[in-house]
Design goal:
Length: about 290
């Protein structure tokens, strides 16, 4: 069994981007600039945005953090996005989800200019992805693809089971794995909360991507020998032994599943770290698109 180490692969991605950014600087060109919008003070969102900003700094990208109060009116947020859309110095815009109740996520995502949609959630980005055109790929599935590629994991002809069909993880993941590319060319089964024979389906899988948000859901009796298991889940569970008061748990019962696998991602230290690396790749590519 080999651990798919998100720290190593993400560092590799960051080093590559830093080299490219240093070159831009040496040539006197502008560096990629990411604008992150954070609304309210949700602990997890604060942590995610802080690490995105920190990673920009490490690579040499510019970043701007724009904070709004939890009670912001939708019209004020749309005005802020319009400003960023029109700001030639901004290459990528991300709005940290979830948003407060009074704001429509769908509307806000659709307002971001597709050329600056580094989260890859805009309908234009998803449409391009489905058609196999160059697109901003949602960062989590993109990070998983980079990881499969880094470890040269064979995917062609394999049966991949994706548990979860959300727009940000499960669905784009299933599309990517089915595409005629490497990684890809899998036969893909997408499972969700209405799937009746999940265990039987998982037992047929060469590759399982667990993205449902239920800690320890995928147990050893659901996984065949030598499967590749990718754990996307991130759930905070109370843990009094931790200073923070919580521990981060994945969707896989790692301790019992890992011995059966050929490869497996840990949580933490797996997919989560790749997500930020992939976001940075999208931001770099957005800067190439931005002719200012
Ligand atoms: N590592 C990262 O960087 C990263 C990034 C994003 C998300 N995540 C984590 O990944 C997990 C999933 O995130 P998400 O945004 O995709 O969640 P989501 O929007 O809540 O979607 C969960 C999906 O899982 C399905 N599901 C729920 N219970 C199920 C069950 N018992 N059996 C089979 N399928 C079930 C749901 O089915 P229905 O469609 O039928 O409801 C849904 O499609 C969460 O833990 C989240 O925190 C991690």
């Amino acid at each position: 069994m080999q651990i798919l180490d998100g720290k190593i692969v993400a560092q590799h991605v960051k080093n590559e981007l830093k080299t490219k950014t240093d070159l831009l600087k040496a040539e006197g060109k502008r560096v990629p600039h990411l604008a992150a919008i954070l609304i309210g003070s949700n602990g997890a969102s604060e942590t995610y945005v802080a690490s995105k900003v920190k990673t920009c700094h490490e690579i040499g990208f510019k970043s701007s953090l724009i904070r709004f109060d939890e009670n912001i009116a939708e019209s004020d947020l749309t005005a802020a996005i319009e400003r960023l859309n029109n700001d030639e110095d901004i290459d990528g815009i991300l709005v940290q989800l979830p948003l407060p109740q009074q704001i429509s996520e769908e509307k806000i995502i659709s307002l971001i200019h597709p050329d600056k949609d580094v989260d890859g959630f805009h309908p234009v980005s998803i449409g391009k992805l489905v058609q196999g055109l160059p697109a901003f790929i949602p960062a989590t599935p993109y990070g998983i693809m980079l990881m499969l590629e880094h470890y040269k994991i064979e995917t062609s002809g394999k049966h991949a089971v994706v548990i979860g069909r959300s727009n940000i993880v499960g669905r784009p993941m299933s599309i990517l794995l089915s595409q005629n590319t490497y990684p890809g060319n899998c036969t893909v089964t997408v499972c969700h909360s209405r799937t009746t024979n999940l265990k039987e389906i998982c037992l047929q899988a060469d590759i399982i991507v667990a993205a449902l948000g239920k800690p320890g859901f995928l147990t050893a009796d659901m996984v065949k020998e030598n499967a590749v298991v990718i754990d996307v889940g991130i759930t905070r569970v109370p843990d009094t032994t931790k200073k923070s008061g919580f521990a981060i748990k994945g969707d896989v019962d790692f301790e019992n599943v890992a011995p059966k696998c050929s490869y497996i991602t840990p949580v933490p230290g797996g997919v989560g770290l790749m997500t930020i690396g992939a976001l940075m790749m999208n931001t770099y590519n957005a800067a190439l698109l931005n002719k200012g």
